[in-house]
Amino acid sequence: MDESVFPVDTACQVSMRRFQLIEIHEQPWLPSLLRDEATDALQFGFNLLNVYGAVAPLLRGALDATRSQSIVDLCSGGGGPWFGLGRRLRGDSPLLQIWLTDKFPNPRAVENVRRALEHHIRFYPGSVDAANVPDELQGFRTMFTSFHHFSPERAGAVLQNAVDAGEGIGIFEVTRRAPSTILLTLAWALLLFLCTPWIRPFRWSRLLWTYLVPIVPLILLFDGVVSCLRTYRPRELREIVGRLTVNDYQWEIGETAGWLPVTYLIGHPRGLQG
Fold first, then answer.
1. Phi, psi angle pair for 144, to nearest 5°
2. Whole-number Å distance between alpha carbons of 54 and 261
3. What would the pLDDT profile of 112-144 be if each residue is shown by its tens digit?
4. What are phi and psi of 102, to 5 degrees?
5. How many helices (H) and strands (E) does the chain have?
6. Who's near 249: CB < 8 A, 6+ residues apart?
7. Which residue, of 12, 56, 117, 142, has the fewest CB within 10 Å?
8. Integer Cα distance of 123 and 269 in angstroms
């Protein structure tokens, strides 16, 4: 593994220990209705604030390096950032196909994304474990705001599964272990009280669980803070990559610039460069 491809951390961060806590929306006991409401709200926020817009050039470069015309998005939730990001990538590559997958699929939200992007996006109906992706799902793998869910051992298994399959992978996290990001999480939970009527698809149940019984904002607030405390820093991502086996991959790890930095890890087989 060539350490020279690892950029130095660009942001000064307050030292905060990583905690392997649980998030409510990923628990199997949570009713699917509430889980879907939470992931819909997250997806709305990602697109409203365009939090992953800065990673489009990185992802475009990775697709070019792997010569891939297919993306397999893991842990997609309510569709993630693919409303805006999908359009930007399709502008450069009209043949690009995007598969959305999740351990707990949210088919209604994914259908909403699919309609917006027409036939370029597809929904894999089965439950997909990011550390054991089905063989029929071939293409460059992506994960947005979800890699922090995994312990270091499981996170390594996710990367190793991509390496063993010979697929490129891109990890992107807008959450960070920093007080400023935790405060933004609180602000988003409060902003939800203003934005909920505009979240699509519209459902009366969403108004119930936001205004009358504010369970959804509480889930997002709790999970948002926990997400920040669980997120890996670039140095920790390097340590996970360093433990992989049969690792003839090129890895790029760092943070984007801007008002809301995104931590990223991108890896692909060296032999595919050209």
1. -120, 125
2. 9
3. 666 655 568 888 888 999 999 999 999 999 999
4. -160, 155
5. 9, 7
6. 1, 163, 267, 268, 269, 270
7. 12
8. 26
